[in-house]
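Hey,

Quick one before I head out. I ran the complex with calcium ion overnight. Inputs first:
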Amino acid sequence: AKERGRNQYQFFNAEMRDQVRNRTELEQALRLALQNNEFELYYQPIINTRNGKVESVESLVRWSHPERGIVSPADFIPMAEETGLIQPLGLWVFEHACQQMQAWCELGLTELSVAINISSSQRHLGFNAAAAQALITKTGVNPNKLIIEITESMFLDGSEEAITWLNELKSLGVMLAIDDFGTGYSSLSYLKRFPIDKLKIDRAFVSDLPDDEDDASLVKAIIAMSHSMGLTLVAEGVENYEQLDYLKGLECDLIQGYLYSKPVPADQLPDVIRALEDP
Ligand code: C2E
Ligand code: CA
Ligand code: CA
Ligand code: CA
């Protein structure tokens, strides 16, 4: 047993060493990627169920790596959060999404809004209303066209600081959305204390609709209660017509998912919108 214990220990050590090496390499690569401008924003349409129009788009960051190609945010956002690189990356994302929104507005897409993901670690690293205002001023974007998406876990914090932070952002004129709703354990009544406009129901609750009875009743309850609180609902990850029809039946306001479109580079978006709105 002793022998085995030692081997395990050594194995663990070697694995840890590799992890550290990979992490250091990834961190270095992320720093370089920021310097070399290797990040790009893709945009995914969000469709209004009442009129079929593309009401907004969500900006989703991609790392276009010279050798590895397009890298998914799931593979680098957690590391960016741990190392604090999410702060410069987040500012880059915010500025570029605003700049792109302003460019689309000038192209005639005047009704469109853009959703920007802000991770909760950005708050602790100094992203705030003043930083957002500086970029809004710099790009000339109308703040009414911006939706800031924050995950539910951030609200669970519930501290005075978090509430003040949200209220100050909201006072810029932007909309606020809770992302991945349902994955935390907050009640809707608790959320009433926050200046929220939209709820995004997490894909995990959408993928097995309408057959999964637990998911179906949960989604039904979320939609009914949020409507009574005046919130707009977005269902994420809608991939088929069964899900779409079910959600429409519950009067879910907005739909996002591969059924309509995957996230696309900015230059493809006007064509994607045209195709969705005049099929
Ligand atoms: P999220 O904010 O929940 O974004 C939605 C994710 O679901 C996106 O993954 C999107 O491509 C994917 N998705 C949309 N429709 C469907 C569908 O019908 N089926 C499936 N299977 N997936 C769908 P993506 O782009 O890989 O982003 C993953 C996560 O990375 C995001 O989840 C968000 O948490 C984070 N992220 C992305 N961009 C940013 C950013 O600019 N800043 C921050 N802080 N986080 C970001
Ligand atoms: Ca999001
Ligand atoms: Ca989400
Ligand atoms: Ca998510």
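Residues 180 surround calcium ion (ligand 4) (CB under 6 Å).

Talk tomorrow,
K.
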